[in-house]
Amino acid sequence: MTTEDVDDRDRRLVEGWQGRFFEDFTVGDVYKHPYGRTVTETDNVWFTNLTMNANPMHFNEAYAAETEFGERLVDGTFVIALAVGMSVVDVSANATANLGYDDIRHHAPVFHGDTLFAESEVLDKRESDSRDHVGIVTTELRTYNQDDELVLTLERTPMVLKREVAEPSAAAPTGWPEGVGTQPEDLS
């Protein structure tokens, strides 16, 4: 059966996940972000090269073998970027800006082949003093490896849109320009 075979009255547009808006956050809530991510050697080498990180601990196997770790470490700024990226779906899909990353701590090394998982806890939320259309949310982001070892923590503070301003809908999710996709008037 193809799309052409389905009568429009049998189709309906269903709203997908739109991310959280300012009103959706509650202090004390914890979001276990979906999808763990295995860190590969390619991730580490490319990120190290892209950022011009010249520490041989990340790209020189012979050097790293002689250290206390016995192998190369994954670049810590890659771990930060990956963990923050994992949290976007729950924390900042509707952010207009990230105001800060604070109290960043690496608790354990990350190696090629480790699979990372992240969760965020809402620490604080408040209205913006300067912008009526957003609120400010502070979360603690915690990242674990496959052995449940805490490898990273940080506090993250984005400005998040209020729902009334964003006016999300199934026909107009964030990032879709008007007139693209589905239509005949988005199946009413």
Summarize the structure.
Residues 164-188 are annotated as: Disordered. The chain has 188 residues and is of the alpha+beta class.
Tell me what the structure shows.
With 188 residues, the protein is of the alpha+beta class. The chain has a domain at 28-39 and 77-168: Roll (Thiol Ester Dehydrase, Chain A). Helix content is 19%, strand content 28%. The chain has 4 helices and 6 strands, in the order E-E-H-H-H-E-E-E-E-H. Strands 1, 2, 3, 4, 5 and 6 form a 6-stranded antiparallel beta sheet that branches. The longest helix is centred in the middle third of the chain and has 16 residues, at 76-91. Residues 164-188 are annotated as: Disordered. It comes from Halorientalis persicus. Pfam families: MC_hydratase (PF19315).
Average pLDDT, rounded to a whole number, is 90
Largest sheet: 6 strands, antiparallel
Helix content: 10-25%
The overall strand count is 6
By CATH, the architecture of the domain at 28-39 and 77-168 is named Roll
Residue windows where pLDDT falls under 50 for at least 5 positions: none
Query: At the first level of CATH, what is the class of the domain at 28-39 and 77-168?
Result: Alpha Beta
DSSP strand (E) fraction? 25-35%
Rg, nearest Å: 21 Å
Q: Helical segment tally?
A: 4
Oligomer: single chain
* Helix-strand makeup class: alpha+beta
Distance from first to last alpha carbon: 23 Å
**CATH level-4 homologous superfamily of the domain at 28-39 and 77-168:** Hotdog Thioesterase
Overall geometry comes to: elongated
CATH domain topology of the domain at 28-39 and 77-168: Thiol Ester Dehydrase, Chain A
**Elements, N to C (H/E):** EEHHHEEEEH
Protein name: Acyl dehydratase
Region (Disordered): 164-188
Pfam families: MC_hydratase
GO molecular function, one term: lyase activity
